[in-house]
Amino acid sequence: MESNRKLKMAIAFASVAALSVFFSLHYRRRRKQRSRRCACYLRADSKPQDSFRRVLADNSYSPFKHLKLEDGDSSYSHPYEAEITALLDCPQLEFTFYPDEKIPTTRDTYTWVETEQQLNELADILIKERVFAVDTEQHSLRSFLGFTALMQISTQDEDYLIDTIKLHDAMGILRPVFSETSICKVFHGADNDVLWLQRDFHIYVVNLFDTAKACDILSKPQRSLAYLLETYCGITTNKLLQREDWRQRPLPQDMVQYARTDACYLLYVARCLVGELKQKENESCFDDELHFVLEACRRSNMICFQRYMKDIEAAPGESAASSIISRHLNGQGGESDDFKAQFQDMVRRLCSWRELMARVHDESLRFVLSDQAIVALASKVPTTTTDIFDTIRQADFNTDSLSSSMPSPSPVVYSHMDGFCDLLQERIDNCNEISLVVLQKCLGQDGTCPLSVFNYSVLVNFTMRSTNKVVSRQNGTKSLKQVSRKASRELFVKKFSCKSPVYHNCRIYANDGRLLCYCDRRKLEWYLHRGLAKLVEDDPPAVMLLFEPKGRPEDEDNEFYIQRKKNICVGCGEGNHYLRYRIIPSCYRMHFPEHLKSHRSHDIVLLCVDCHEVAHAAAEKYKGKIAEEFGIPLFVRNIVDLRDDHVASEPCAMGINFEQAGISPLELRTAAMALIRHGQRMPQKRREELMQIVMRFYGGRDISNADLERALLVGMSSHERRRLEKKRGLSLKHSNGGIIPDKRQIGSTKKMMISSTVNRSKVETVDVSFSEEEQQYVNEEITDQVETEPINPGMEPEAPAHDNNNENTICYTSQNGNLQNEGLDLGDSRNDETQPTHNPKLSLLGHGPHGKQVVDHILKEYGEDGIGVFCQRWRQVFVEAINPRFLPAGWDIKHSGRRDFGEFSVYNPIKKALAEAAKS
Ligand code: AMP
Ligand code: ZN
Ligand code: MN
User: Fold this and answer.
1) CA atoms within 13 A of residue 267's CA, in its CB half-sphere
2) Which among 326, 398, 709, 738 is least buried, having the fewest CB atoms inside 10 angstroms?
3) HSE (CB half, 13 Å, CA atoms) of 610?
4) Is 90 exceeded by the pLDDT of residue 531?
5) 137 in Cβ contact with 148 (< 8 Å)
6) Is the shortest distance between the CB of 138 and ligand 1 below 6 Å?
């Protein structure tokens, strides 16, 4: 067995060597001929994805565009958010997953679906089902973002294998089945599948039952499908097949069998798990009979809320480079600083080149050039072509078990050797230049490589960006307006930018010499004073902890915290002035649970004045969107419709608190929507509850269907309203009875939010003052975070030291060049007299209860995961607004912010409890 394997490896090695000789000869010949046109291996090699015509996620840096339904929000939001919300609110709990109590026996036949007609027939069958099981197989080696190579669907009667390569452009046919609320889709571990289906086909799953979530709730010892198949069906699977090449056609018999097995037992497994969930409910003493099943459904459908997003990073290959560098240099002592600097630089170049080449050729990173080859090349930079080949081949042969099935060096390296040599011999200077050179050589005029749907917009985006830069540089003449703008800008810079570097880049090491984090001076001193660390380096200072810290950053994928941070604008790289920018607006963050907001350095970045202004404007605009989406206006809390005079006069006269009498617009809308859509089918009790909610809005009177329709519009912007009306076929006149007064509709979003929720009977609960809690938060922010939050050995990020600027806005230059306080501009002159004379900083938090309500809502509905998703959305807004190119490596839209607290951290729950106990 072993010798057989060795022989195989030797043969693989020999054939790769032969190939490389062939390629080097070919390469030399090519150089002589200088026939650039047929240089790239892709001119001869074709890949299955070449046949795709409709590619939704291309390899460019532009954000992924989601399906835009006719009445949908934007191409960046989830098109079926309303349906999923309705489902969470009123879940379907009657399951008929599988009729039989017996373990299903393997069926003799299956249906291979590979024509559009067959796919249409399948859609017709599925739309009549109540439930079906789904799984997908991916291919990721010869593609940059990966693609779905096979989809398995099983109903009670039949297994279908869909050739999603052949049918790639037609898969939209199944979109309605997947988004149909009344059909339950059973997956196992749907997190990735849900995103993959969005990425490739704009297919969105609504109504999901995930057997892995059920496992979690039942506290099963394992949650893998293999475990479930073995436990419930007595079937063992060979999970190694998962990693086979699923592009193969015809699919080998063992892979067909494996693929079928992944889906066809799922319905039966789901039946068993729901049975157990129900049993668990009966055993427990909860009143709510459906507690466990309900929870499984909720968690499953929360997965549907995810949206596919492309990873965006500061510079091409930057995060991969950081990871390689820290992995390699950490295990290595005794190298000179010169060597280290050179090594790091070379790793960065190689990673940058690799990533661009991967995008251009639609290949995975590891196919283009392996991590270990990068380390080998950067350690001893080879000069001749033969040396380069040998170095790569040796590195791959030594370490990667996959290398036997992958050509080493890859054809990408072979066929683009001249660029690769330039890179190694440092004839290309920085990463930006690498990008330009690669794109010009490969895709530019007379480029070497084929253009395709995957790489076309890499080229277009990049060319546009670099020409913009050139134009703005050449534009030397300035208008008078620009001059005065410049003067006030300078004043602003002087007044508000940070006076000294924010990041001191001091380091903290663990007692085994591993780098734990970068931080500022005050934090180092804190450790030193308490004898918890000893100084090991002077400039910039570094300490080593004298105790065992909790965890290491790499262990938890927290690359971000072991990066040296530059004192420059993360947007454009400006280094002369910068100020802090909070990516997640304080009006929300201040209400997050303590442990989620205490690690803040990830979401506070430095921006120059110009980028700051752009980012701030985008955030303000997005707050308006959040307000609309959640139905929680920026200034008003509860709403009551008091159009019927007899109702209106009473509570007013009695001085009833409208905030209690009313109802939040979101609650109202969700209830109305649920009643309109599912009112007939839902249990009597639930229907009554929902009716109560709507009745509260109408002051307690009986409600008609027209009232329900009208309730759908409450709290929406006029734009949103028009769209909904169009969809539901309502005329504007129909509801023009007073919920939305017309004359205030024009103006800022803020104005719209106020006017759209205040009705004509003058229930105006506009509130611009601050609660005690908010006031306290503001004070806290001003009195610096450094003393209160640094002490989490090993895992604590750098808390930027307190400076004079604590909030995202203070003043911005208005068009006429004056400085004005934007925070106080509430866009409504009625508030002039009541304008608070607060510190301007306060006003910026000032959306009354909006922030708190939004956060409370998220916590209640989606828990802490919801907060995570919410933070991701703000990071996305930030990234889209300024396209930051200098973010520290490891900065991640998906950053979890969930980290353990060390023994000495003031946030350590045990420590906190002890401190509290000591006080009392
Ligand atoms: P599954 O959900 O098990 O059907 O996996 C679906 C797809 O995910 C497979 O086709 C693989 O492309 C990918 N995948 C899952 N787990 C792994 C793994 N451990 N290594 C590589 N690829 C995996
Ligand atoms: Zn090429
Ligand atoms: Mn599978």
Assistant:
1) 28
2) 398
3) 13
4) no
5) yes
6) yes
Contacts for 761 with CB less than 8 Å, ≥ 6 apart: 642, 643, 648, 652
Q: Is the dihedral of CA 848, 851, 857, 863 positive or negative?
A: negative
CA neighbor of 642 nearest in space, from 767, 768, 766, 764: 764
| Tokens, residue 248 | 């193969």
The pair of three-digit structure tokens given for residue 276, joined into one six-digit string: 């157990």
Nearest to 425 by CA among 531, 521, 342: 342
Compute the CA torsion angle 510, 512, 513, 515 (nearest 10 deg): -40
Which helix (H) or strand (E) segment holds residue 326: the answer is helix 318-330
750-770 burial, b at 16+ Cβ within 10 Å, e below that, comes to: bbbbbbbbbbebebebbbbeb
Amino acid at 500: S
Report in angstroms the alpha-carbon separations of 606 from 565, 576, 601. Answer: 10, 12, 11
The tens digit of pLDDT for each residue in 476-525 reads 334 444 444 555 566 566 666 666 676 777 888 877 777 777 777 877 88
CA-to-CA distance for 856 and 86, rounded, in angstroms?
Answer: 19
Cα–Cα dist 527/549, whole Å: 13
Task: State the Cα–Cα distance between residues 564 and 235, nearest whole angstrom.
Answer: 51
Q: Give residue-wise pLDDT tens across range 789-828.
A: 333 333 333 333 333 333 443 333 333 333 332 222 222 3
**Of 67-71, 137-141, 224-228, 397-401, which range is least confident?**
397-401
- Alpha helix stretches (DSSP H) within 114-252: 116-126, 175-179, 190-201, 211-217, 225-233
Cα distances (angstroms) measured from residue 635 to each of 90, 430, 631:
29, 49, 11
Tell me how crowded residue 648 is: count the other CB atoms within 10 A of its CB.
19
Any idea which ligand is nearest the CA of 189? 1
**381 alpha carbon – ligand 2 mean position (Å):** 23
First to last CA, the chain: 70
* Span 651-707, pLDDT tens digits: 333 333 434 456 666 678 888 888 888 887 788 888 888 888 888 877 777 888 888
The answer to which of 163-177, 833-847, 858-872 has the lowest mean pLDDT is 833-847
Q: How remote is the CA of residue 455 from the centroid of ligand 3, in Å? A: 29
pLDDT tens digits along 227-283: 999 999 999 988 888 889 999 999 999 999 999 999 999 999 999 999 999 888 777
* Pocket lining: 137 vs ligand 1, CB cutoff 6 Å: yes
Test site for ligand 1: of 136, 188, 242, most ligand atoms within 8 A of the Cβ: 242
Structure tokens, 620: 């303000």
Closest CA to 527 of 513, 504, 512, 546: 546
Whether 210 is in the pocket of ligand 1, judged by its Cβ within 6 Å, is no
- How many Cα atoms sit within 13 Å of 164 on the Cβ side? 26
Q: Tokens at residue 817, please?
A: 């060049």
What does the alpha-carbon distance between residue 855 and residue 868 come to, in Å, rounded to a whole number? 11
pLDDT band at 427 (very low <50, low <70, confident <90, very high): confident
Position 786 confidence tier, pLDDT thresholds 50, 70, 90: very low
- The mean per-residue pLDDT over the stretch 15-30 comes to 48
Name the nearest CA neighbour of 465 among 58, 66, 64, 882: 882
Give the separation between CA 395 and CA 375, rounded to whole angstroms. Answer: 9
- Rounded Cα–Cα distance for residues 187 and 165 (Å): 21
Residues with CB under 5 A from ligand 3 (ion): 135, 262
242 lines ligand 1 (CB under 6 A): yes
Question: Looking at residue 134, what is its pLDDT?
Answer: 98
- With a 6 A CB cut-off, is 494 part of the ligand 1 pocket? no
| Residue indicated by tokens 């009551």 | 640
Compute CA 851 distance to the chain's CA centroid, rounded to the nearest angstrom. 21
State the Cα–Cα distance between residues 327 and 554, nearest whole angstrom: 9
Per-residue pLDDT at 868 = 87
CA distance 131 to 297: 14
